[in-house]
Specification:
Length: 625
């Protein structure tokens, strides 16, 4: 069971959920489509009033209105932000939307309903409040009405909690058939239909219908035709002025010189800093991605699919030769066809692969280094000659830390081409807190990889726990060292005081930081040379108002001022890190003072708006030169 969150936090979560739902509406979501079709099977043809609870951006509401044109359809959601989007997308005369907690505000809705629809909603009511939910439904349902539900099975919920906790919402309870039976009992109704269905995994969702009285239902429309994807996309473009990329990123329509952002994979696009470039740059954005950089915004090959597949086979047989030349021609054709004015290559290694295409077309190439591409020994050895060519060809080279700026200059990048642009964060999302009011909790955020050395953070914490038995450590992230760290925590006797959450979304990170005393990170230079750029987690922590205890490593030194916004220790000095952590526990006023100064420093120097503005200026300068 997921812990119950405050109503304000739930509303905030769903207000920020719109882009996810817009992406589902644009691309199609088999779970949502199956749930909507299930509901249409059970709404009788002569229904006069239908209530869609938890309507989100109104996909289900609109489909019900399309198929039940004689009915008045009400979409109800707790989120004003989602309802605003729903109203923009839906102009049908028989639809209206309401905002609020229907348990508390149902008196605002006049009349009773022939059908009440809860598609992937019932599980988000706290189990302790179900009696109240049932009472509200009882008041709203007419004598011969139906309640239609879809929800994830406990099996799927267990899968999410173990494998994909980022997919959970603030409240995400288990729902069983017995729970549906209790709902039917409280409504003086019966379960008319119940079936577990397969969406992604076997029996991962349940569809159910509860009937009161004897509704006249004709279930002939078992496969109701939903609106075509092309029409949904046209509606999103026309009414929201956005489009959705294949990775689910919602990008506003903008004017100006078109920029092509080149990212190695969709998983890389999920990295916060690259996602911000795609969604926040005030310029029209296209994206190329994939292992060969031959997939466009919609995930389609930019060259003929059969040619691409054939060349991949030939390339493997010839040890890799042949495909790069085709890739260059295909990329050049794509850039020309989309009238790209500048290319932003995320990571130096991708810049290498774009050099020839940009040179052929005379398009300025901006290369954004992030970390491993500037430091890992093998990467530097493999790309030594190509980096020299890249530095000569590139219009601008972005370094995210002062250390990286020096490193790129050593590698041969002309100093006049290097622009220092650190990552930035949304200072509104990471609101100001008072660390002294929080429990003695430390939070660490980042991948479990060698350069972040989470095992050294654990060793430091073991010393802290010996001196401060109420201390706790929350480690957010995943990676190859995660299981090793779990074993280490058990071996040094701190397993009960350490929580490993796995990967979680930005909202979870922000909420956890707001409940913590300090942020910790023991970054080091890895044996293969890998180093940090400027860790975003460090900036997020200071934006929250937390003191940071970290190592004097790479870009961390640019963000954290030792003794003023946190404490910096030498790499591998576990004892010094433990002492600094103990200090912010034993002196809460010190934690407040450091945290306040840290937030002021981030607002002044490391806000997301500043970072994006600087990057946009570099791109525009390159285009206009």
């Amino acid at each position: 069971m997921t812990s119950v969150s405050s109503p304000d936090r739930v509303r905030h979560f769903y207000d920020n959920f719109a882009n996810k739902l817009i992406a589902d509406y644009w691309q199609g979501n088999p779970r949502a489509a199956a749930a909507i079709q299930h509901s249409l099977c059970w709404i009788r043809k002569d229904a006069k009033c239908v209530l869609d609870i938890g309507c989100g951006i109104g996909w289900s509401t609109r489909e019900i209105a399309r198929h039940c044109q004689q009915a008045k359809v009400v979409g109800w959601d707790i989120s004003p932000g989602l309802v605003d989007v729903a109203q923009a997308l839906t102009h049908e005369p028989n639809v209206r939307f309401e905002v609020g907690d229907f348990c508390q505000e149902r008196h605002q809705t006049v009349g009773r309903f022939d059908a009440i629809v809860l598609l992937d909603v019932y599980e988000h009511f706290p189990a302790a409040h179900r009696a109240e939910v049932h009472a509200a439904l009882n008041d709203l349902l007419c004598d011969n009405g139906v309640v239609i539900l879809s929800y994830p099975t406990p099996k799927h919920q267990a899968f999410l909690r173990t494998e994909h906790p980022e997919g959970l919402q603030p409240v995400d309870e288990d729902v069983t058939r017995d729970d549906v039976a209790k709902l039917a009992e409280d409504l003086a109704a019966r379960i008319e239909y119940f079936r577990e269905v397969t969406i992604w995994n076997a029996d991962d969702y349940a569809h159910a219908t509860v009937c009161r009285g004897h509704p006249n239902i004709s279930r002939g429309r078992r496969t109701a035709n939903l609106e075509r994807v092309s029409r949904r996309r046209a509606r999103v473009r026309a009414r929201l002025d956005v489009r959705v990329l294949s990775g689910g990123l919602v990008v506003p329509t903008r004017t100006g010189p078109a920029v092509c952002i080149v990212s190695p994979s969709l998983s890389a696009i999920s990295e916060t800093f690259i996602r911000n470039h795609v969604t926040r740059l005030p310029l029209p954005v296209h994206v190329l991605h994939g292992s060969r950089l031959t997939l466009d915004d919609d995930g389609r090959n930019i060259g003929p699919l059969k040619v691409v597949q054939g060349l991949q086979i030939v390339s493997r047989r010839l040890g890799g030769s042949g495909f790069p030349q085709f890739s260059t021609r295909a990329i050049a054709h794509y850039l020309r066809r989309n009238r790209i004015s500048a290319v932003l290559a995320e990571y130096g290694t991708n810049g290498v692969r774009l050099t020839k295409a940009c040179s052929r077309l005379g398009i300025p190439l901006i290369v954004h280094f992030h970390g491993h591409d500037a430091y890992v020994n093998e990467v530097l050895k493999t790309n030594q000659q190509q980096y020299c060519e890249l530095f000569e060809q590139a219009a601008a080279i972005i370094a995210v830390s002062r250390d990286m700026e020096e490193q790129l200059a050593k590698l041969g990048a002309p100093s006049e081409k290097i622009a220092y642009i650190p990552c930035g964060v949304d200072t509104e999302l990471f609101g100001n807190v008072t660390p002294s009011k929080s429990a003695e909790h430390f939070v660490a955020v980042g991948r479990f990889v060698e350069k972040k050395s989470p095992h050294l953070t654990l060793l430091a914490f073991s010393k802290v726990l010996a001196a401060c038995p109420n201390a706790r450590l929350i480690m957010i992230g995943d990676g190859p060292l995660l299981n090793l760290c779990k074993q280490l925590a058990a071996a040094v006797g701190v397993a009960e005081a350490v929580e490993f959450t796995g990967f979680r979304d930005q909202a979870f990170v922000a909420e956890t930081m707001q409940k913590s005393r300090a942020f910790v990170q023991h970054s080091v230079r890895a044996l293969n040379g890998d180093s940090e750029g400027t860790p975003v987690g460090v900036i997020e922590a200071q934006a929250t108002g937390l003191p940071v205890v970290a190592t004097a490593h790479a870009g961390i030194k640019d963000v954290v001022v030792d003794g003023k916004t946190g404490f910096l220790v030498e790499e591998l000095d576990v004892d010094a890190m433990a002492e600094a952590m103990i200090a912010v526990i034993r002196d809460p006023t010190l934690a407040d003072r450091l945290g306040k100064a840290g937030r002021e420093r981030v607002i002044a120097n490391f806000s997301l708006s500043q970072s994006i503005q600087k990057l946009a200026q570099v791109i525009e300068d390159a285009v206009n030169t």
